[in-house]
C-alpha cells in the first residue's frame, strides 16, 4: 500500500492511502436524455478521493468515481466497462471535484457526471473561461457554442459526455487538477506542468487500483475541451514518458502506467509555443473589432509559421501531399471546411438552405456540395484575439500565466514576444521554460513517435471557433494519421468554441474501438 502525508502547507497532516476503498460509496440516481430517449441511471459515487500520497493541495488532486449499477430496470455489471476520464479543465485554471475551484474551470458539482469544461463568454481569456454548471441549458450560449464536453438533445437540454457514457454503462472518473490560478502565501503552485502531472497521477491511481475500481483499466478514454482538450491530447500523446517521472515522484503518484487507450479532444488549445504564428497565418488579415491588427508583427509571425510547418513534414489526408503554409488553406477547405458546410446545408430544409445561402452569398451550392474561397471563409468568422494571441507582449494572456513559476505569475514563453517586449535581440527564455514547454505540447511526443501513446483519437472543433488556428487541429490529426493511428476528426460548420454536436456518436465510437457492449 502506498501512503504518505498531505503537503498542502496546513499544520494538520493526515495519511493518504492509494488503495481504493470499494465500500466508500453513495448510491445516486439521475435521468439522462439520450438519442434513444430518457434513461434513469442508478450509480455508485465515490467522492473526492485523493489520488497521490504527497498532495500539494487535496482540493484539486482528488477525483470522483461513478459506476452504473442499473439502467432503467436492468442491472448493470460495469466491472469490465470502458473508463471515461472526463476532465473539466478550462483556461488552464484549477479544477476541483470537492465543491469548487480556485477561479474557474471547476469540475461538475459533486455527483453530477461530466462537467465537461469551460464555456467562453464575452471576452474570455485565451484558452477558455469559467465553467458552465453541468445540466445548464444553452439559453445564453454564444452562437454555435455549447457547454464544452456536452451536446444538445431534442428540446435543447444540455447533456454531458459523462452523463451519456454513464447511461451507456461506462465507468466515469472526474479528475481535479492544479491550475495557473493556484496561489498560497504569495507562492504559485499550479503553473505548468502541474496540470498534466496531476492528470497522469490520476491515470496511475486508476491503473494501480485495477480490480478494485470497477472498469477495464486498459480502456481508459480521456475527454476534455479547450485547455482541457489540450490536456486530453497531451495525456494521450505522452503516455509513460519518463520526462514526467521526477514531478510524479514528488507528489507521490502511484507506481503504475499513465498510458491511456483513447484520447477525445474538443477544440484543443495546444501547441502553444507555435500558436501565435499559426494564428497569424490563419487570421492575420482578418479584422478585430473593425480594424486589422499590427501587420508588421502579424507578418513576422506568419513567416515563422511557414518555417515551423515545413519542419513538421506532415502528409495530408487522401494523398494530399506535404502540408505547407502555401497549401494549408486548400487542405483545410478540401478536408474539413467544405465537407462541414456541405453536411450542414444538406441537413437544412430547402427553405432554410435558400435563406442561409442568400445571407452567405460567398458560398456556392452546386450538385449538393458547398464550395468557397478560404479568404471569404476567414472574413466570415473574423478573429477574436489580438496579436500576439497567446504570448501577449504585456504577458496578460492565460498562457503567459500558465507558464509562470512559483514566484512569478506570468512569463513570456516564445523568443519573439520576449525580444519584442524587452527590446533585446539576444534575450533568452528563463532556463526552466524549454523543458516545461516540451512537457505541455503533445506535438513533441507525437514527433518522437512515443510508443505508449494512445492509438485512438476523437478530435472536434467548430469552424467558427477562433480561439486558436484551425491548423492546430489539422496538424494534430495529420501527425497522428501519419503514424497510422485511428483518428476520427471533423469540424462542425459554424460551431463556436466548445461545440459538441455529435455526443451520441462519441459514445458509439467508444463502444466501437473497445468492442464493449457488442
From TrEMBL:
- Chain ranges of the BD-FAE-like domain: 191-279
Q: Where is the composition biased (Gly residues)?
A: 100-125, 137-156
Q: Where is the composition biased (Low complexity)?
A: 126-136
Q: Region Disordered: start and end of each range?
A: 100-156
Its recorded name reads Tat pathway signal sequence domain protein
Q: Which organism is it from?
A: Streptomyces guryensis
Q: Cite the source lineage.
A: Bacteria, Bacillati, Actinomycetota, Actinomycetes, Kitasatosporales
